[in-house]
Amino acid sequence: MGIRAALAVHPASGHGAAGRASGVVAEKLRTAVDHLTMVEANSIEESRALMVRARDAGLDLLVVLGGDGSAHQGVQFCAEHDVPLAVVPAGTGNDLVRALGFPMESLAAADSLVEAIGAGRRRRIDLGRVGDEWFASVLCAGFDSAVNERVNRMRWPHGPRRYDLAILAELAALRPKPLVLDTEDGRVELDATLVAVGNTAYYGGGIPVCPDADPADGLLDVTIVGKASRLDLVRILPSLRTGKHVEHPAVRTMRARRVSVGGDNGWVAYADGERIGPLPQAVECVPGALEIVG
């Protein structure tokens, strides 16, 4: 039996970009697989139900066409059911695709995927896990999560500039809060502005908050911005786009297999841009948890 694949499309991703590209992407995939099932859904619940139905019919590959939120749902399904995953970007951030080094344009990514399927190009990457939730990119809390909540309420502008404006808006309410991190190497307690736990480098539409994170090293990279004033943060912000923020005296980095993130701070954790819930949260790296095609 040949390759049986499903193409999961979230039509609204990228302000409709996924829906517009779905037909052409499907045509390209049909040249590389023997059977393709279209899974088009407008809600998380519907998407997961359709993915399970495709798995029950026999599934060798799940291709997600969408943004990081869509990819996040694909990660949940594929990690739980040991189904290989491929992602064709059609969102506003596309941070997982960026971290994996795939083309950032939908049709170019589809062409690359067709080539990878034909060549049998696959690899396993680590995932982060918090409770019952998997994440492929970054879990954040503090200033970051406040920015995420604001971004999710915004309707303009599109793309990375939305994050930039949300960052500026949240500066007005900036207050360092107590943060407690427990890892296999001990406890860290300090006043902090934000913490990011990265399986890969990027979040927020291309910000390398954990610039050295490697999704195949069995470790999570942790970036902490300590007690920083608004002026300090304004000075740090431009370097976030280049990864040079880790050189600032207020920034601390570490690596761990497991990290508990807590403290009396009222912070909410986000992972892959999706709301996880209030701290404390226990995070672990699960080596080789996901097979990627591409």
Automatic annotation (TrEMBL):
One of its GO terms (cellular component) is plasma membrane. The keyword Zinc-finger does not apply. GO terms for molecular function: ATP binding; ATP-dependent diacylglycerol kinase activity; metal ion binding. Keywords: ATP-binding, Kinase, Lipid biosynthesis, Lipid metabolism, Magnesium, Metal-binding, Nucleotide-binding, Phospholipid biosynthesis, Phospholipid metabolism, Transferase. The keyword Hydrolase does not apply. Gene3D superfamilies: 2.60.200.40, Probable inorganic polyphosphate/atp-NAD kinase, domain 1 (3.40.50.10330). Residues 1-134 form the DAGKc domain. Its cofactor is Mg(2+). GO terms for biological process: phospholipid biosynthetic process. It holds the Pfam family DAGK_cat. InterPro entries: ATP-NAD_kinase_N (IPR017438), Diacylglycerol/lipid_kinase (IPR005218), Diacylglycerol_kinase_cat_dom (IPR001206), Lipid_Phosphate_FormReg (IPR050187), NAD/diacylglycerol_kinase_sf (IPR016064), YegS/DAGK_C (IPR045540). PANTHER family: LIPID KINASE YEGS, SPHINGOSINE KINASE. Belongs to the diacylglycerol/lipid kinase family. This is Diacylglycerol kinase. It comes from Actinokineospora alba. The lineage of its organism: Bacteria, Bacillati, Actinomycetota, Actinomycetes, Pseudonocardiales.
